[in-house]
Design brief:
Blueprint (H helix, E strand, L loop, with lengths): L2 H27 L3 H26 L2 H25 L5
Helix pairs in contact: 1-2, 2-3
Amino acid sequence: MSPLLTVLLAVSTVIVAASMIVAALRAMRGPDDATRAVMADLVYFCAIALFVMFVIRGASAVALEVVMLGSLLGILSTVALARILTRGRR
């Protein structure tokens, strides 16, 4: 792995981790359920992004399939939570 890629991965890991911490704090103090739901989704997808960065360092092809499955589950849970928050209205 090139030194430039290593530096970029380290910088992006710090940025994503910082946004994950800020989103988690906002999810805990959110004024309403919709804000908490959006911030919880952000935390989830930040965790997926951190996992992707660790996979890139390790160069594992199988782990990328796990990331795709996790992303699909995250999207489905987002849709389900949106339906719950709107009480089934469209």
